[in-house]
């Protein structure tokens, strides 16, 4: 098992990529703290992990709040004795809008969750890893950071910010044996997908339009990103830090 004996925190783990990653890391031997603003969703993910015979803990977490980030790190260490992986995955999407139509409240919400949430996770998780002389901090970015789509400028800017943040943090903690890596998924079959398509629910037309932009001919499943996260968290990726791994079926080519 790639993560046997390790402890991971995954934010936004009540659904989508976060839930798939929490399950995948648990399957590879990690004890997982499932963090989500929706406590019932977090508990549902924990139940799935525990049914498979692994250890997990649900913690209600608003990643935009410093106290919640500090608490989830402290709960992980208190429950399992250490912290080896922190996957800052929680994020919010943007309805397709031209810049003049985006209000300041929308901008603030996207940056509070997508950027400040990652920054706060790093602020509290990385000191623990540095003291341990090892650990991996993962960030869910997006292909929007590399090849944005029209009407998604605020979301794209937030994801571009965390790619750069990951690179800066990687330099900051490398001497302590800690790695920092961003993951850039293409559109993924999660509850956020309709928003990216500017629809209330996914339909054939919207799906076909998005799939046509991906050379491999499909969108991500959450498990595609989860497998990449497990790899990056494992010793198989021991020489990867400061990178942004595109899990995109060729979208960014």
What's the level 1 CATH class?
Alpha Beta
Sheet with the most strands, sense and barrel status:
7 strands, parallel
Structure class: alpha/beta
What would you report as the Rg, rounded to the nearest angstrom? 17 Å
Poorly predicted sequence stretches spanning 5 or more consecutive residues: none
> For this structure, what is the CATH homologous superfamily?
NAD(P)-binding Rossmann-like Domain
H/E topology pattern: EHEHEHEHEHEHHHE
* Strand order of the biggest β-sheet: 3-2-1-4-5-6-7
How many angstroms does the end-to-end distance come to? 33 Å
Secondary structure: helix percent: 40-55%
Describe this structure in words.
The chain is α/β, with parallel strands linked by helices. The chain has one domain (7-245): 3-Layer(aba) Sandwich (Rossmann fold), CATH 3.40.50. It has 8 helices and 7 strands, in the order βαβαβαβαβαβαααβ. Strands 3-2-1-4-5-6-7 form a 7-stranded parallel beta sheet, with helices on both faces. Strand 1 (7-11), helix 1 (16-27) and strand 2 (31-36) form a beta-alpha-beta unit. The model has no long low-confidence stretch (mean pLDDT 96).
